[in-house]
Every structure is written in C-alpha cells, then in structure tokens.
C-alpha cells in the first residue's frame, strides 16, 4: 500500500476543502449570493483559485497514484508535496492579484507533468516486462 501517497492525497483534499471554505467566506463578506460567480474582485479571485484547483485535481490525482503504484510511493508523494506547494503559492499569489499567480501555477504544472510522465513510463515498463521483453 502506498502509504505516503495516501497522506499526500489527504493533504491535497484538505487544501481543496480549505479553498472552498475561503470561497464561502468571501461570499458572505462581499454579499455574493449563490449561484453567482461574479461580484467583488476578491471573491472572484477566491472562486477562481478554488475552481482552478478543482480543474487540476483530475490531472494530478490519477498521475500521483499511477506514479506511486508503478514507480515509487515516496517519489510520487514527494512530487505530490511539490504540487501542493505550487497550489499554495498559486493561492497566495492569486489572492493578492491575478498577475501574481504564475509562479505557483508553473510549479504545480511541472510537478503534475513529471508525475504523468513517471506514470506513463512506469506503466509502459510494466507492460513490456509482462510481455517478456
């Protein structure tokens, strides 16, 4: 069982949940009633931070788990921590101004890309090994 990957998955979900709470708080603070997704700029940035993270979860989580299963639990978990750190940087920057989100976005995109490549290489190597190549 990839224990380290389990912990990183839980951390990623906690981060996402916290982002969702920030959106709810911003709705209250700025009077943006559901289902509206526009209003005060601070609300809109909080909403986009949470939404963009949700958009990346189906890219990140399967790559994280496949890399853990086919390559390395610890290696995948470490890259997962980098992804989480990138999302945190993204949150911090974007919360200040839309132009400040770039560094965090690049960090998490690279981490997700490396996880995806590791997963692909691990799966292909496993398939070749199973074929006796």
Stretches where pLDDT is under 50 for at least 5 consecutive residues are: none
- Overall, the morphology is elongated
What is the ordering of alpha helices and beta strands? HHHH
Give the N-to-C terminal Cα separation: 27 Å
Helix content: over 70%
Number of strands: 0
Strand content: under 5%
Q: What structural class do helix, strand and pairing data support? A: mainly alpha
Keywords:
133 residues; mainly alpha; 4 helices; elongated
Overview of the molecule:
It is built from 4 helices and no strands. The protein has 133 residues and is an all-alpha fold. Helix 2 (41-70) packs parallel to helix 4 (102-130) and helix 3 runs antiparallel to helix 4 (102-130). The longest helix has 30 residues, at 41-70.
Short description:
With 133 residues, the protein is mainly alpha-helical. It is built from 4 helices and no strands.
Q: What order do the helices and strands come in, and which of them pair?
A:
Layout: H1 3-30, H2 41-70, H3 73-96, H4 102-130
Helix pairs in contact: 1-2, 1-3, 2-3, 2-4, 3-4
